[in-house]
């Protein structure tokens, strides 16, 4: 069974963070420059929330495209659902669908280990299916034929 820790290991450890007091404009610039869809919001070394393009789009819509002097704190999700490194991929999929979450922080106790995205999940599932498919093909290819079984 595929675990979150395995997905993080393949994904790598690059993590982009912001603080709650960062101006929205600066967070938007970081997300755009790094081509990422979320920022983990950290305060005093602890997870304080998540900021995704969903919150930014809502804010821009409500403010006619202007970020103004607003900070990340005013729009971030301050109670994001999180998972542990031992959580199964199936459970992450269920949570993502149930909570409409495209990005889920991975916490090992109070320590932030990374973020799993919907894209990461799709990539991991495709890779796992390809591996399983190759194993089944190898198994079928090595299947003893009727003539081999009869001569034994």
TrEMBL record:
Keywords: CBS domain. Transmembrane segments: none annotated. Pfam families: CBS. SUPFAM superfamilies: CBS-domain pair. InterPro entries: CBS_dom (IPR000644), CBS_dom_sf (IPR046342), Diverse_CBS-Domain (IPR051257). The keyword Metal-binding does not apply. Residues 7-67, 76-131 form the CBS domain. PANTHER family: CBS DOMAIN-CONTAINING PROTEIN (PTHR43080:SF2), CBS DOMAIN-CONTAINING PROTEIN CBSX3, MITOCHONDRIAL (PTHR43080). This is CBS domain-containing protein.
